[in-house]
Write a structure and sequence with these properties.
about 210 residues; mainly alpha; about 0% strand
């Protein structure tokens, strides 16, 4: 298993990586602005599960195959980016839903947030390639590498979920403040959707 020094290095590196704005963080903030705290937090749970699925692929060696295959990488990249853009467009199209739901005291429902978060987390190729290059550095070659990789990935997922949750609560609090005037929710929904469209476009443009 990883040594104490490897664990410390892994935790420090993971925390620093997680705090760099990326698809998961921007997606979480966009969801919090669009649909609020509860569904944003559920999206965080789904995203963590999607990341865990990627760790499972890396642990059994499939991640290395994807990292080495330009075609596989491109397919995952395009699918994830297209899905995020679709979510953003839907948020813009339905930007009045939050205001109407508030007036009717009914929740906004356009897909289960855990499922949505899972799809975003599982189709983020940057995270997959990062795991392939990052996790093996903290494993002990003399031990069960697959098990160590899975354990490290799970710890990373927990750290990421904790960080994203803090961001979701902060963004949702701002949303609640603006929501004191219900008409502002339309602009918030459009802003969240625009953020997700921009995120998807950035993912498509990235090398």
């Amino acid at each position: 298993m990883p040594s104490s020094s490897q664990w410390v290095a892994f935790l420090v590196a993971s925390i620093l990586f997680i705090q760099v704005p990326g698809p998961s963080l921007l997606f979480t903030i966009g969801r919090a602005l669009t649909v609020g705290r509860r569904e944003a937090l559920l999206s965080v749970v789904g995203n963590a599960l999607g990341v865990t699925a990627q760790v499972g692929l890396v642990a059994v060696g499939l991640g290395a195959v994807v990292a080495a295959s330009a075609t596989a990488y491109t397919v995952i990249k395009l699918a994830g980016a297209a899905y995020v853009i679709w979510l953003g467009v839907q948020a813009i199209r339905h930007r009045a839903d939050a205001r109407l739901a508030m007036a009717e005291a009914a929740p906004v429902r356009r897909g289960h947030p855990v499922r949505i978060g899972f799809a975003v987390g599982a189709t983020n190729p940057k995270t997959l390639v990062f795991f392939v290059a990052f996790l093996p550095q903290f494993t002990d070659p003399g031990g069960p590498v697959a098990l160590q990789t899975m354990l490290l990935g799970l710890v990373f997922g927990v750290l990421a979920a904790a960080s994203d949750s803090v961001w979701a609560v902060a963004a949702a609090t701002a949303r609640d403040w603006f929501a004191r005037r219900p008409g502002r929710l339309d602009a918030l929904g459009a802003a969240g959707g625009t953020m997700m469209v921009g995120l998807g476009a950035t993912m498509l443009a990235a090398e």
